[in-house]
Structure formats: structure tokens, C-alpha cells
Amino acid sequence: MSKNTFHLVSLGCAKNTVDSDSMAQLLLRDGYRAAADPDKATVLIVNTCGFIGSAKEESYKVLGELAQAKRKGQVLIAAGCLTQRYGVEVAQKVPGVDGILGTRRWMDVVQVVRKLRSLTGSSELHPEPVYHLPEAATVGSDEKDTLRVSVAGASAYLKVADGCRRPCAFCAIPLIKGTAISRPVEKIINEARVLRDSGVRELVLIAQDTTDYGSDLGMKDGLAVLLEHLTVSVPDIDWIRIMYSYPGYVTDRLIEVMATRKQVLPYLDIPLQHAHPKTLKRMKRPSNIGWVYKTLAKMRSTIPDLSIRTTFIVGYPGETDEEYQALYDFVNEIRFDRVGAFQFSFEPGTTSSPLGDPVPSEVKQERYERLMELQQNISLQINQSLVGRTLDVLVEGFDNGISIGRSYRDAPEIDGVVLVEGKAKVGEIVPTKITGALAYDLTGVLARKVIKL
Ligand code: SF4
Questions:
Q1: What is the CATH number that goes with domain 5-132?
Q2: Quick one: 333 exposed, middle or buried, by C-beta within 10 A (0-12, 13-18, 19+)?
Q3: Which one of 230, 239, 377, 406 is CB 3.0 to 4.6 Å from 202, fit for a cystine?
Q4: What is the pLDDT of residue 119?
């Protein structure tokens, strides 16, 4: 175990992945080296997720395993959303955690490591963990010149804002992160340039709510404005993908930018959470389903080949058979390209907690399975309609004679892939003739004549 080494485990969403990468940048800058093997590291860090039940369980499990295996001279830090939300409770539940660092002050990781290392060898003297949960209303914007990005091959997440001001009753994010803080346009453009120069072809813009970008900076239509700046300032980034938009804030200007700026992919992730106005009202979510129909229709008529991803919650308190059927019929009618579904997770401290969790788990499970089965058929039919088309595919791997990549319809980690016969260079965008369809994935062959280098 060499002296200044760290092993960082990143759990949860892409926004947490960016925080993990930023903490790693600060540790590397402070002379630490990353260790893939926890046994070889003096500093162990878990950037936890505290969003819903299953994610919390996973965070505790990973922390517990590292605490169990921890050796003399090693320190274990629990960082991220679980610690921001539960602080002391995390240390009580996982003896062996030496440091608690909240997600709002991820940028203080070096300070916490130094404090702990100065105590190492005397933990007997200091049974209490070091808590770093300073009063902070929001996620800090003193980013210490870190790049707020996370690169995977030729694709990169770029965080444009953090925190959220929406009132969704089931969601703990505002409790964890505080209200929405947008990052300055210049910083985002600089990072896009750095990414471009490092060979990145796809920018995946992330925040809790990208459509709220700039509202705290006094910008109107901030996301559309940001995209206009990005496409002008970094014209040679091939793909720009928008994740996590909020219903009611997909404006005409944003639709126009998506329709006219070639780099902005005809792809939109817009979690709707439900489709019955009564359920949406209880969720404190925009309940004007008419707006959803109108806006999706407008987007589909304005943006050719638009691919829409959404997310739903089943089993929300009070969800009747009739309300669930309305959701089911809505999904059947709209025919989304991608659907993610969650079973309602009771989250203490959220505004929905007084409603309890009355829908039996077997009912939630049954509703979840029916919805995903419906979507699987829809996804297969949509994929079958693409056979014969030629799609650009960003190649991300090669295995057994098959190049594996994603088309504009596939966001990293959560959507499908395209399995391309033949060898193409990882990081290349290659025109691919689609020859086959699976429920979520496509197969194809290289449309050799126009390989883009
Ligand atoms: S928009 Fe709603 S669901 Fe999404 S992070 Fe904000 S409060 Fe949570």
C-alpha cells in the first residue's frame, strides 16, 4: 500500500459521477495517485447515492464491505448524497467510516483527507469520525478549477447546474442538494473546448433539471441560449445530448434550437413521472397533460426523427387502478422510444411522506412489470421500423468481430446499443446500415463508403 493513493467508488447518477471525477482531480493535483485496488490505497472514498431506498441500500453495502476489509493506516470516507442527507446516521450504521463529507462540499475532499491522515494511527484516540457537513444552502460553486465533466471514451458528461427548485413531492434531491445553481456559460464552453481537444465527440449535458439552466443567472430560456453558445463556440463537437428536462419548460425556442442546430441531437430525456392529472397533482408535478400531448406533437413535427426518453413512477400513494390505466394507455398511445420506470419509494422528509406508502408492493410490482412489458413491445416495433435505415454510430468498443456503439437514440448507460458487424475504430462515428432489431438494441453493418475519420 503506497503512501498517497486513493480508491474512489462512485455510486448513483451521472451527476455523482462528475462529482467523483472532480474529487479525483483535486486529489491527483494534491499528489495522490488513483489505485484501482482498494487494498493498495491509503484513502478509500465512496461517493454515495441517497436518492431512493434501493440506492441507499447499495451505498450502505459498499461502505460496509470497505469498512470490513479496511486495514491499519487506511481511512474510509463516505461522501455524496447519502451523507448529506443522513450524516451521523451513516457513521452509526457503518462503524469503520472515518470521515463524512456531504455532496454540497465535495470540493473540500483534500481538506478532509489531510485532517484524517493527520489523525491516522491515533483513531483509537479519536473514535469519532471527522464530520465535514458545514452549513451550505446549496452545492458550492467554488469548484477549485476542476473540470465538471466525466469522460468515458469519446463521450463526456458535462454538468451545467446542480441542485433543484422544483417541488416534486416524492423527491429528496432538493433536500440533499438545495436549490438550483447554474454554472457560468463561459466555464461550460471552456470545458467543452477542453473536451473537444481531448477527442470527445459527444457532450451529454446534465443537471437535475437542464431546462431550468440559467434561471438563477437571470437568463430567459437559458438552456436554448447555452446551446446556441455551445454550437457557435464549439462547432466541431459532433453530438450534444440533453438529459433531464422538466415538463412545462421545453420552450419553442429550445425546440427551434434542437430542430436547426445539427450538433444538438434529436433526442430528449423528459421524465414525466405519470400521466393522470390527479396523480400528478398529488406528486406536485405539472399536471396539464394537454401540454404534454401538444408539446410532444410539436416536437415530433418540428424535429425529424426525434427520439424521446421518459421515466414514470408506479404505485405512488393513492394510485388507483383507473389512474394506473390512464398511465398505461398514455404510454401505449404516445409510443416513447425509451421508458424507465420506478416503483414508488417512500422517502422520509419529502412532502409526500405524510401520504405514507399505501400501495402494496405486489401491486407496484405487477404495475411495473405490465408497463415495462408494454414498452418492450413498443421499443421492438420502433426498432423494427429502423431496419434499412443508415444511422451514425459512435463506436465505444469491439468484441468478437462486432463493434459496439450508440446512435443518437441511445444515451450512455441507460439506453440501448448498436451492434455493428465489422471493425471500426473506437471513438469514431461511423454510418451504419441497420439490418436487425432487438427489443432495445439494433444490429447493423458498416456503410463502408462514407466512413468519417
Ligand atoms: S425535478 Fe423533481 S424529480 Fe427532478 S430532481 Fe428536481 S425535485 Fe427531484
A1: 3.40.50.12160
A2: exposed
A3: 239
A4: 81
